[in-house]
């Protein structure tokens, strides 16, 4: 690769994060991986994420990752959370938890990343295909992911002067071991594999997607 990118990835220890990290490394990019739990042999490039909804912590961790990289071409925010809860039984704490896990982590992390991101760089968030319209049990989660969508659109418009592209992927059900365990009666052949979504992420973060910004891109095909 003539011009490998320097990329920060949050949520790197999840099923999707692992697939994204693997794909980027295979392509020759330099990646700083922010993890909830560090691997047993973390090696270079792995950072303990801590609470990314905490602005002070996000500033410390992402700055450390940026300094390790030397410069930052892309920021991929995969960290988030999920809760199925019907509105009648969900508490305000449930709504706040979903906001913190999905919106607050994205805002706190991206705000710091922007200070380190090169002009012409790219940011990718993870929304949810289930957020609009939200179905039964998807009130708190759907509302939070709708917030991520609005963040994506606003930040894309605000970042145009620096030619920074901001997009979000909208997965449905991802074929992960956790989802298979949680939904044993479902048919996983209709779900999307992490590797297929990782291919889309790799495209969106690359200069090949230079004409795309402010997009909310469904990644829901059974692939």
Describe this structure as you would to a colleague:
- This protein is of the alpha/beta class.
- It has helices at 15-26, 55-69, 92-116, 139-158, 177-182, 194-205; strands at 6-10, 30-35, 46-48, 72-77, 117-126, 165-171, 216-219.
- It has a single domain (6-219), classed as Rossmann fold (3-Layer(aba) Sandwich), CATH 3.40.50.
- The chain is 40% helix and 18% strand.
- It has a seven-stranded parallel β-sheet, with helices on both faces.
- Helix 1 links the parallel strand 1 and strand 2.
- The radius of gyration is 17 Å and the shape is globular.
Average pLDDT over all residues: 95
Q: Unreliable segments (pLDDT under 50, ≥5 consecutive)?
A: none
Helical content class: 40-55%
- The succession of helices and strands, N to C, reads EHEEHEHEHEHHE
Quaternary status: single chain
Radius of gyration: 17 Å
Give me the CATH superfamily. Answer: NAD(P)-binding Rossmann-like Domain
Indicate the overall shape: globular
Number of domains: 1
Q: Which CATH top level class fits?
A: Alpha Beta
Query: Strand fraction band?
Result: 15-25%
Corresponding CATH architecture = 3-Layer(aba) Sandwich
């Amino acid at each position: 690769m003539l011009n490998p990118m320097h990329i920060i990835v949050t949520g790197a220890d999840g099923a999707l994060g692992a697939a994204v990290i693997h794909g980027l490394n295979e392509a020759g990019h330099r990646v700083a991986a922010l993890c909830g739990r560090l691997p047993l042999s973390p090696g270079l490039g792995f950072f303990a994420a801590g609470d990314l909804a905490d602005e002070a912590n996000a500033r410390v961790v992402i700055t450390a990752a940026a300094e390790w990289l030397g410069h930052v071409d892309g920021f991929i925010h995969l960290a988030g959370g999920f809760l199925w809860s019907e509105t009648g039984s969900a508490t305000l704490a449930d709504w706040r938890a979903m906001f913190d896990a999905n919106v607050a982590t994205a805002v706190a992390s991206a705000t710091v990343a922007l200070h380190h991101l090169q002009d012409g760089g790219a940011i990718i968030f993870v929304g949810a295909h289930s957020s609009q319209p939200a179905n039964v049990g998807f009130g708190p989660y759907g509302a939070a992911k709708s917030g991520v969508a609005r963040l994506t659109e606003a930040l894309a418009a605000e970042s145009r002067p620096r030619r920074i592209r901001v997009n979000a992927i909208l997965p449905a059900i991802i074929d992960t071991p956790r989802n298979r365990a949680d939904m044993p009666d479902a048919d996983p052949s209709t779900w999307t594999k992490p590797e297929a979504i990782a291919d889309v992420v790799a495209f969106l973060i690359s200069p090949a997607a230079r004409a795309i910004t402010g997009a909310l891109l469904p990644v829901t095909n059974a692939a």
